[in-house]
């Protein structure tokens, strides 16, 4: 199938599953789409066991879709920009230290807690996955997914300060996680400058990716802001924001700076200063409508893809058990990496009740974790297959179980 046929099929499935969810299932859109596509995938697998031949065709189709490139180099930039557009910068500045610590130190701490715990647990289960690959698993599973988190936050009515903490952390921590992931790939012998990974190279890579990405996002965001300020034509202005998202992300990746961080920074600039000073009411209204639609469509396609990915995974029973074991491990690591810094910060600032509990349970994992797992080189062999399945189990639990219950937790907090 060519790219047009694949896109047509994915959009058709997303539309059909969205209709079924709205008409029958009535779950939050992202959760409903994942559940329906997951059930359809299981039905296809069962049909294959019965000799109907659907399983091989479905797997062949999915094998033609590079999930990692589709998300990380295609959809992610638009989804991050759409999310950042509606984060109030004034609120984010108030929570800057909380967001910065959770998105950086929290991710690194969680990476090592999950990684070392996984190493000993996997060894006890007879999997024997090398430590560096366990740490890679820790890096890819530690960041909360902005796409999953922002989708849930739209429906739960969280207090503004708490929503800003969750949204701000999730928008930035995936960029940090990618840097940590790349550093660990270097230790595994698959990154840039293999065999030369030192403290200096790690710090240089972090500065280049994270700080460089933020500066690049500020520069391109400001250029587009000045262009928006100089005209009043909403069609052209929408095209400018689209060029910023797609062109800016692609250029950031070519310059080896963090595309996700660049687009988040640019989105915050356009969503705050741009909306306030560079747009007419008509442009602002059309901008919101356009990016909300892009967000909904891409989210639908993404969660359908996550559900369908079950068809191409090697579901060894040992991997499934390891995935189930890692669910409480990742939750505990999240609790500690969030709870310790917030407890220390409580001496100097006030937090809403149950903040640690909500940040822990509301820290959903999503497509970014799966995309990073799929980016592991084929040469990693059994370790790659195991990490893929374990990641998938944790992500599905996170979205279906945590995603469906975090609203009740927030409501209890608000009450």
TrEMBL record:
Domain Cation/H+ exchanger transmembrane: from-to ranges: 13-410
BP GO annotations: regulation of intracellular pH; sodium ion import across plasma membrane
Topology with respect to the bilayer: Multi-pass membrane protein
Pfam families: Na_H_Exchanger
Main subcellular location of this protein, as a coarse class: membrane
Alphabetic keyword roster: Antiport, Cell membrane, Ion transport, Membrane, Sodium, Sodium transport, Transmembrane, Transmembrane helix, Transport
Residue intervals passing through the bilayer: 32-52, 97-122, 128-150, 171-190, 202-224, 236-253, 259-277, 297-315, 321-344, 356-374, 386-411
Location of this chain's protein in the cell: Cell membrane
Gene Ontology molecular-function annotations: potassium:proton antiporter activity; sodium:proton antiporter activity
GO cellular component, one term: plasma membrane
InterPro entries documented for this protein: Cation/H_exchanger_CPA1, Cation/H_exchanger_TM
Similarity section: Belongs to the monovalent cation:proton antiporter 1 (CPA1) transporter (TC 2.A.36) family.
Name by which UniProt lists this protein: Sodium:proton antiporter
Native source organism of the sequence: Candidatus Thiothrix singaporensis
């Amino acid at each position: 199938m060519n790219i047009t046929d694949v896109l047509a099929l994915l959009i058709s499935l997303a539309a059909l599953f969205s209709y079924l969810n709205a008409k029958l299932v009535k779950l939050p859109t992202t959760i409903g789409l994942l559940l329906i596509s997951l059930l359809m995938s299981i039905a296809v697998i069962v049909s294959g066991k019965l000799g109907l031949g659907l399983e091989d065709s479905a797997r062949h189709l999915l094998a033609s879709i590079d999930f990692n490139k589709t998300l990380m180099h295609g959809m992610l930039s638009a989804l991050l920009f759409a999310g950042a557009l509606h984060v109030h910068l004034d609120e984010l500045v108030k929570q800057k230290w909380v967001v910065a610590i959770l998105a950086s130190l929290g991710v690194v701490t969680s990476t090592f807690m999950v990684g070392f715990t996984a190493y000993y647990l996997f060894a006890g289960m007879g999997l024997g996955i090398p430590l560096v690959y366990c740490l890679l698993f820790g890096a890819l599973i530690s960041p909360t997914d902005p796409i999953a988190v922002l989708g849930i936050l739209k429906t739960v009515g969280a207090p503004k300060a708490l929503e800003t903490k969750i949204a701000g952390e999730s928008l930035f921590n995936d960029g940090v996680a990618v840097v940590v992931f790349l550093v660990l790939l270097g230790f595994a012998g698959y990154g840039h400058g293999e065999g030369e990974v030192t403290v200096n190279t790690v710090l240089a890579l972090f500065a280049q990716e994270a700080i460089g990405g933020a500066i690049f996002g500020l520069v391109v965001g400001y250029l587009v802001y000045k262009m928006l300020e100089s005209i009043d034509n909403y069609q052209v202005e929408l095209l400018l924001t689209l060029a910023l998202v797609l062109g800016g992300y692609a250029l950031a990746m070519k310059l080896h700076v963090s595309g996700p961080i660049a687009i988040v920074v640019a989105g915050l600039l356009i969503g705050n200063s741009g909306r306030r000073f560079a747009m007419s009411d008509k442009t602002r209204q059309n901008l919101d409508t356009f990016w909300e639609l892009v967000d909904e469509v891409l989210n639908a396609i993404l969660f359908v893809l996550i559900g369908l990915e079950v068809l191409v995974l090697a579901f060894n029973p040992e991997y499934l058990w390891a995935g189930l074991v890692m669910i409480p491990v990742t939750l505990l690591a999240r609790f500690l990496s969030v709870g310790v810094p917030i407890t220390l910060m409580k001496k100097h600032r006030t937090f809403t009740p149950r903040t640690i509990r909500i940040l822990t349970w509301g820290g959903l994992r999503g497509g970014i974790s799966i995309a990073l797992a799929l980016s592991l080189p084929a040469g990693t062999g059994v370790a790659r297959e195991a990490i893929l399945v374990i990641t998938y189990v944790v992500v599905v639990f996170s979205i279906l179980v945590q995603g469906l219950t975090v609203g009740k937790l927030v409501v209890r907090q608000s009450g």
